[in-house]
Specification:
Layout: H1 3-11, E1 15-19, H2 23-33, E2 39-43, H3 46-59, E3 65-69, H4 77-87, E4 93-98, H5 102-110, E5 115-119, H6 123-140, E6 150-152, E7 157-160, E8 165-168, E9 171-172, H7 177-188, E10 193-195, H8 196-205, H9 212-223, E11 231-234, E12 238-241
Parallel strand pairs: 1-2, 1-3, 3-4, 4-5
Antiparallel strand pairs: 6-7, 7-8, 8-9, 10-12, 11-12
Helix pairs in contact: 1-6, 3-4
Length: about 240
């Protein structure tokens, strides 16, 4: 797998805050990045960006990546970046910078920011910078520190508990109604054995009739959509979904 594809898969599990005072640019870039990242939020200036950062931190964890413009009302990008670094010393920050803003660059470099996207934005350069930043996060971030709504099954496959999606290499895997119900139970008991009786009871709670005779067929079909050896049968007991990382 190429480093670019690896970064793309990682981006699907990361959160991003985009801070830009130009309304049209902020809307356009936010909508574009939403196709690549797990969660994207935006703010119109540093003050609003800092408010959203604190709010997200209180609910979850710090944003994985922050992109910020330099020239903004109320609080510029340098002040905003300093505030973020006082909260999280290693916060990944990318700065949008026009060539005429060179006077800000030294201050940014002095607080450890080395990733910049030049304005006007050229999308290949923007994504190249994002790939590099996300690849570093991939190397430095342990699985346990990823969003609690994401369950990694393999390097290419994860389950999004919030969206109830099985995702492989950034693309949702189609699941039937039966497979979706099965996945919810298997994820709830990830790395644990689910007994056949427990599984049948789970289906019954969802008003779905499944007999013990065709349960095996349901698991065989689901197994084909999961990484090899992720879903195993425990003879005489039940089934277990495990990570194959």
């Amino acid at each position: 797998m190429s480093k670019e594809n690896s970064a793309l898969m990682k981006m699907k599990r990361l959160s991003l805050l985009f801070v830009e005072d130009n309304d049209a640019l902020r809307t356009r870039i936010t909508e574009m990045l939403a196709d690549y990242f797990y969660r994207v939020e935006s703010a119109a200036d540093g003050v609003e960006g800092l408010e959203k950062y604190h709010e997200y931190l209180s609910r979850n964890k710090p944003y994985d990546v922050v992109i910020s413009d330099i020239r903004m009302p109320r609080m510029n990008g340098v002040e905003f970046a300093k505030e973020l670094r006082s909260i999280r010393e290693d916060q990944p920050i990318i700065i949008l910078s026009a060539h005429a803003e060179a006077e800000y660059l030294l201050a940014l470099i002095n607080i450890g920011i080395s990733q910049f996207i030049t304005k006007p934005i050229e999308y290949p350069q923007m994504f190249d910078t994002l790939y590099k930043v996300c690849a570093k996060i991939d190397e430095a971030t342990p699985v346990s520190s990823l969003s609690s709504s994401i369950v990694e099954i393999s390097e290419e496959v994860f389950w999004d508990k919030d969206k109830k999606l099985l995702v492989e290499e950034g693309t949702a895997v189609p699941l039937t109604k039966y497979e979706l119900v099965l996945m919810e139970l298997l994820i709830a008991k990830f790395e644990q054995v689910c007994s056949s009786d427990e599984i049948l009871y789970h289906f019954d709670r969802h008003s779905i009739e499944v007999s013990s005779d065709n349960l095996r067929g349901q698991f065989m079909r689901l197994r084909k959509k999961l990484p090899d050896k992720a879903l195993s049968s425990i003879y005489g007991i039940g089934y277990r979904l495990s990570s194959v990382l």
